[in-house]
Write a structure and sequence with these properties.
Helix Hairpins; SH3 type barrels; 2 domains; elongated
Length: 182
């Protein structure tokens, strides 16, 4: 019995000695990776501070970049540890397709929200008419617009409905002369 236990201990010790550098390097990669992710996020924050970027879009961009960098770090570390990352990536692709299909409405709201924040057809405080609703814009987020109607109702409108409908910004300067040929 002692021989069996001693043999197991010797094999475990040999395995640990053989694998120790690989695990140490992986730990160093994780620490360096988190440091790099933090540096990139700080650089993005400084860049956004110097430009007039929408705060909601800033947060979304920082989180998206951080997520992509984190997934990349995990894949690199797993690959270094000998895990077959190509199968893992294929699994992520299939999971992404399934999740994307299941949440297509949410994703369309996010995409429309990004377009609204970049193109800025209206801003908070403007009076708009869109998606069959007329009122004052209270808030514009990445997924929804909040509008107070003329009747005082607080309405939350999905961004895909706003982006997919004509947007009339009634707060913008109105023309004094009629358009020629109209």
């Amino acid at each position: 019995m002692n021989q069996i236990i001693n043999g197991m201990i010797i094999r475990a010790e040999g395995y640990i000695r053989a694998q120790y550098p690989k695990y140490l390097f992986a730990a160093i990669m994780v620490i360096a990776g988190f440091f790099i992710i933090r540096l990139v996020n700080n650089a993005l924050a400084r860049l956004f501070d110097r430009t007039e970027f929408d705060p909601t879009l800033e947060i979304f961009t920082q989180k998206a970049v951080g997520f992509v960098l984190l997934v990349t770090l995990v894949l690199v570390v797993l690959g270094n540890l000998g895990v077959n990352v190509s199968a893992f990536i294929a699994g992520l692709g299939i999971a992404g397709f399934i999740i994307g299909f299941a949440t297509r409405d949410v994703l369309s709201n996010l995409a429309a929200g990004i377009f609204l924040l970049i193109i800025k057809p209206f801003k908070v405080g403007d009076i708009v008419e869109t998606a069959g609703i007329k009122g004052r814009v209270k808030e514009i987020s990445i997924a929804t617009c909040r509008i107070i109607s003329e009747e005082g109702e607080y309405i939350i409108v999905p961004n895909s409905k706003v982006w997919g409908a004509p947007i009339k910004n009634l707060s913008r300067l109105k023309r004094k002369k009629p358009l020629q040929g109209a």
